[in-house]
Specification:
Elements (H helix, E strand, L loop, with lengths): L31 E5 L5 E5 L1 H15 L13
Antiparallel strand pairs: 1-2
Length: about 80
Amino acid sequence: MTNSETVAVRVEIQPYDRQHGVISWHDRDEEISVKVTADGAVTIRANAQGLLGLARELLTLRQDAVPNGSEVFLM
């Protein structure tokens, strides 16, 4: 990779709340598919909105207050 520049991307997430658990949302135009092959390889395909949604799910789980073992489901 020859380009060492970075860009900032803003992704808003809901702060973790023990009473409500992990909360995220999906935008109307999100398209994402995840496939797992028999040998365990994972393929993720998504449009731009789907990739931002996936980032939101991961960053939501990344919060320090979220308990270990918490999960979100891609639907």
